[in-house]
Specification:
The chain has 207 residues and is mainly α. The chain contains ten helices and no strands. Helix 4 runs antiparallel to helix 5 and helix 8 packs antiparallel against helix 9. The N terminus is likely disordered.
């Protein structure tokens, strides 16, 4: 994380540091960093405080405490927004919306998750332009597709997964690991569609 920051890649550097914190705390058997939640929020929006609280939120999500993770991510979002200033669209805020969306999706809160992914995508587009964060945009669009899969809106699921796949192939090539993942996700959509069609056919036959 520190090396990447020296190279000017602050967003990626922050991500690596946060995940390092998560792994460290899981390794020593803790479910979250040794920082009291309320004490952290009262100290203001320094990068260290925000990073620690984000690490705490990620740890909560790793141990499937979605409600705690969402509450912590909301505080991180508010602290980050105040630190940046105003209600300006910013890549870090878009990333935090994305994290909250993933946490809610893991808790099967599909509508709320979908709303956060859409907001994250639009904020990132406004903040950087869709070509400047292609991997992030492809990732968010993929999760939009997965939300539609959970809602059994298979056409919209495939449409978004195709968009994600196209962006990944354009910017990273056919051999990128995430290309394979999105193709697998499309397979899940088609499988779910087959199951639903089969169940509908059986129901019609029974009637």
């Amino acid at each position: 994380g520190w090396v990447l920051e020296k190279l000017g890649r602050k967003h990626t550097a922050g991500l690596y540091r946060h995940h390092a914190l998560v792994l460290y705390n899981l390794h020593i058997g803790e479910s979250k960093p040794k920082l009291e939640y309320l004490d952290v929020t009262q100290q203001g929006g320094s990068p260290e405080v925000i990073g620690a609280l984000l690490g705490q939120a990620l740890c909560s999500s790793y141990v499937t405490r979605a409600e705690d993770s969402c509450d912590q991510l909301e505080v991180v979002y508010d602290l980050t927004r105040r630190t940046i200033g105003g209600s300006v669209d910013h890549p870090e805020l878009a990333y935090l919306l994305y994290l909250r969306g993933r946490t809610l999706l893991s808790a099967n809160q599909i509508d709320e998750s979908l709303d956060l992914f859409q907001k994250s995508k639009e904020m990132m587009r406004k903040a950087t332009g869709k070509e400047k964060r292609p991997h992030f945009m492809a990732e968010v669009i993929k999760f939009v597709g997965l939300c539609y899969l959970h809602k059994q809106k298979f056409g919209l699921a495939i449409q978004n997964l195709d968009k994600s796949l196209s962006q990944l192939k354009t910017h990273f090539g056919e051999s990128h690991p995430n290309v394979c993942e999105v193709i697998e996700n499309k397979g899940h959509v088609y499988a779910a569609q087959i199951v639903e069609n089969s169940e509908n056919s059986e129901q019609v036959a029974t009637n």
